[in-house]
Amino acid sequence: MSAGLVVGSHGHHVVVETATGERVICHARGKKNQCVVGDRVQWQASTDEGTIEKIDKRRNLLYRQDDIRSKQFAANLDQVLFVLAAEPVFSESQLARALISCEAAKIKPIIVLNKADLTVPFDEAMVRLAPYKRMGYEVLGLAIKPKADVDSAQVQAKQIKQDEGARETLMTLLTGKTTFVMGASGVGKSSLINLLLPDADLATREISTALNSGKHTTTTTSWFWLDESKQSAVIDSPGFQEFGLHHVDKMLLAKLMPDFAQYDGQCRFYNCKHLQEPQCAVLANVSEEPVDTAISPSRHAFYARVFEELSQSKF
């Protein structure tokens, strides 16, 4: 058997990169593909393809689980870049759920707010993200546009300067790390990937074609090296709309929300649900005050909804 890294995944097939840099299409042994991009695997060569024999132990796994199915994103990550946009207005519930999933997997999340050139919507979005900054999450503002949106020479020159600054900022965060890039469709995630890797679109299409998933690149999760030494990598993923948390224990939910977690162990009851119990430290600090110690009413309402959702979970 040979060691390899899963760099592309679609359905029953994966693309494995060997120690020499060769990329080979491999099939899962059995009916279901358990591999995800980022997995280190042991594979067996055949005539022109290969078979996955074993998945090496993972450091972590990022995934979501609703009441019907589970969706595994990627494994062995250092951080997640969650991309939002000033327009259209982003879903705070989706963001909060993704952050909880990162916390559960012990993966560092970084929030990127794109379209900083849309001044009013961007400022309004930053106000909505202020509580997350107070919780300790890193929030980064950028203005990345698709190349097709840049027409006149003057606008092009300005955009080139903005892109150079954005790329420098991003590379500072990404160097030496394996980073999963995620976000809903239309937020500029593909533009961000193409800014970092001008040939990323072509490479993704090649992987998609090899995996028989056609040229619709959003169906494939793909790994890209950012440097020749192969110390830094980004993983591009399809856009999504929902983010189920049924894999999270409801009694651990508060520990995965930093504004709630600061009061861990301070309630009267050790198994406090933080919903209506007496002498609950969480409930005592629900306030509209924009301070580090406060939990906003909307955050507590979100917590209550997710807690009820997990209480009904079959998993």
Highlighted features:
OB fold (Dihydrolipoamide Acetyltransferase, E2P); five-stranded mixed barrel; 315 residues; alpha/beta; two-stranded antiparallel ribbon; Rossmann fold; 8 helices
Q: Give the strand line-up of the largest sheet.
A: 1-2-3-5-4
Calculate Rg over CA atoms: 21 Å
CATH architecture designation of the largest domain: 3-Layer(aba) Sandwich
Q: Regarding CATH, which class of the largest domain?
A: Alpha Beta
What average pLDDT do the residues reach? 88
Please give the domain count: 3
The name CATH uses for the topology of the largest domain is: Rossmann fold
How many helical elements? Answer: 8
Shape: globular
The percentage of residues in β strands lies in: 15-25%
Derived from helix and strand composition plus strand pairing, the structural class reads: alpha/beta
- Please identify which CATH superfamily of the largest domain we are dealing with: P-loop containing nucleotide triphosphate hydrolases
Catalogue the unreliable spans. 213-218
Characterize the structure shown:
- With 315 residues, this protein is of the alpha/beta class.
- It folds into 3 domains: 2-55, Nucleic acid-binding proteins (OB fold (Dihydrolipoamide Acetyltransferase, E2P)); 61-236, 3-Layer(aba) Sandwich (Rossmann fold); 250-311, Ribonucleotide Reductase Protein R1, domain 1.
- It has helices spanning 92-105, 119-134, 153-174, 189-196, 200-210, 258-261, 281-284, 297-311; strands at residues 2-10, 13-18, 23-28, 40-45, 50-55, 61-65, 70-75, 79-85, 108-114, 138-141, 178-182, 221-225, 233-236.
- The strands form 2 sheets. The chain has a 5-stranded mixed barrel with strand order 1-2-3-5-4.
